Amino acid sequence: MASMTHLYAVLPVTDVEASLGWYTALFGRPADEVVGEETMWRVDEAAWVVVAPHPDRAGGGILTLGVTGLDRILARLTAHGAGHEPVETYGNGVRHVVARDPDGNSVSLAEAPPAESP
């Protein structure tokens, strides 16, 4: 039986070094690994976000991350000088916002509403 066990979502950028500050602010920490020209942040046990130099594709990436602490993440980005679109709240209570890295890649952040107590 075959299975897929890991996710590596690659965001293409023109210059990894120039993008490091933005992604470090997004994740709130330095990269977890650097492999060759790829800089990687682990977002779950088997899921990674990879920033890699692909100048011909830069700016076309689209990624959505489920998060907790959305306001803290947005505060880090703002402190770094990075803006974001207005936060939307969907009918199901999910808060969603789009931020763009220096190349224009779209990184959406989605925070589920707090669980209701029984």
Write structural notes for this entry.
By secondary structure, the chain is α/β, with parallel strands linked by helices. The chain is 19% helix and 37% strand. The chain is built from 2 helices and 8 strands. The protein has a 4-stranded mixed beta sheet, with helices on one face. Strands 5-8-7-6 form a 4-stranded mixed beta sheet, with no helix packed on it. A hairpin with a 5-residue loop joins β6 and β7. α1 packs antiparallel against α2.
Sum this structure up briefly:
By secondary structure, this protein is of the alpha/beta class. It contains two helices and eight strands, in the order βαββββαβββ.
Topology:
Elements: E1 7-13, H1 16-27, E2 33-35, E3 38-44, E4 47-53, E5 62-67, H2 70-79, E6 88-89, E7 95-100, E8 106-111
Parallel strand pairs: 1-4, 5-8
Antiparallel strand pairs: 2-3, 3-4, 6-7, 7-8
Strand order of the largest sheet: 1-4-3-2
Helix content: 10-25%
Uncertain spans: none
DSSP summary: helix tally: 2
**What is the string of helix and strand elements?**
EHEEEEHEEE
Quantity of strands, as a count: 8
Overall pLDDT score = 94
Biggest sheet character: 4 strands, mixed
Strand content: 35-45%
In terms of quaternary structure, what is this? single chain
Radius of gyration based on Cα positions: 15 Å
Structural class: alpha/beta
Q: Based on CA inertia axes, which overall geometry fits?
A: globular
How far apart the termini lie comes to 40 Å
